């Protein structure tokens, strides 16, 4: 990960410049088009303020976030277990290779529709559908990580009689941590987008449901207000949780 | 009293041109607090033998027997320092204890004696090779082992530093006696440290001879004495050591 040295202040000011330039382009386009189907930033933010004040926005964002958290956790746990097994055991790798190929290429929409048909319009079906979409990616990343493990550290753990838990906690997981971090970051980006589709198809709350509702009303300002608020939430998680974690797991690299 | 008894009938070694034996019929017995050096050419299977002795490799025919309770008092020094790169020197050493907080004093004094005081909170990759090897020695000694298995621990160091670390090993063994199985391809190193030498042939490894080292502590530090001892026992050293 090559990064040019740049101060935090410099990074923030560039980020502001970038966001403001996007807003300016948007505002300019809205000004030229003059259509209710392309509202200006001010209109969108006033809708956002109203939805925020009424509590509607927070409720739907919270519902979506809970689904994201549940399916993200399920996908990370199951995907890691499969990926580590495939990296360690040749038979598991050969057995599941075809499965991975199948699920990696299965369109998200098909998984969602099938889960709703088989398990009904329930939360379990929602979480399952999203997790199934993410599991193969996690498995592939963790398989790579497991293949890159250095066997000499296993010998260290055996020679110094580490317990299974200690070997897992202090030898195996730290070696895999960069792969977990990479899977988590790409996973969050994928999972929340799929959750929105699931909500649109078969839930009665959440950001995806609201977007569907406002689509039927052709209310573009509300659609954008919900989209932006969720982008902000995801970016906050990314900036204040996932990025610092990813940096902390590789801090020893001098 | 026997501390460790190794009897390896054969150890298969997979190669593209078919399977052959890496080790054939090696029997080694080490007495309590005896220092045995195994001397053999590079690639003859010394490391494999040591890994079998430590229980790191199960794919062999034969037996390895430890004196009662000795396996729990074993420490292994790898050919590479094998420090976990994501832990500082101190935290690497702490890892061999299940309750490191009870051993803070031991750890600190050992780090002091290997000359790593002040480097405790540094990550291994920021240390020189010599310092990493010292940390790896400290990790082995901090357990007060009664059985010490060492795989060319001083290889690829300059002679001055290697000598200092050998002296450190002798000092630490004086404080904390242990049975040692020490693998090397350097006959000077073997003669300067060991009570007994075991010679291995090029692969597949077989024992070609055994020799008790009857040199005083002082003679061991004198290159001329080492050379004349080697010359007097020249028939043992025929299997290719320089």
Topology:
The complex is a heterodimer of chains A (254) and B (242).
Chain A: H1 8-33, H2 41-54, H3 56-88, H4 90-105, H5 108-119, H6 123-147, H7 151-159, H8 164-202, H9 207-216, H10 220-249
Chain B: E1 2-15, E2 18-31, E3 35-39, H1 46-54, E4 61-66, E5 74-77, H2 89-94, H3 104-113, H4 129-141, E6 147-151, H5 159-175, E7 179-184, H6 187-193, E8 196-200, E9 207-212, H7 217-220, H8 223-232
Parallel strand pairs in B: 3-7, 3-8, 5-6, 6-7
Antiparallel strand pairs in B: 1-2, 1-4, 8-9
Strand runs of chain B, count:
9
Gap from first CA to last CA of chain B: 34 Å
Largest β-sheet summary of chain A: none
Structural class of chain A: mainly alpha
User: What's the quaternary structure here?
Assistant: heterodimer
Proportion of residues in extended strands of chain B: 25-35%
Q: Strand share of the residues of chain A?
A: under 5%
Biggest sheet features of chain B: 6 strands, mixed
> How many beta-strand elements of chain A?
0
The total of helices of chain B stands at: 8
Order of helices and strands of chain A: HHHHHHHHHH
Chain pair with largest interface: A-B, 19 and 23 residues
- The helix-and-strand class of chain B reads alpha/beta
Shape of chain A: globular
Low-confidence stretches of chain B: none
Main β-sheet, spatial strand arrangement of chain B? 5-6-7-3-8-9
Q: What is the count of DSSP helices of chain A, taking H or I runs of 4+ residues?
A: 10
Radius of gyration of chain A, whole Å: 22 Å
* Helix and strand run of chain B: EEEHEEHHHEHEHEEHH
Global Rg of chain B:
18 Å
Uncertain stretches of chain A: none
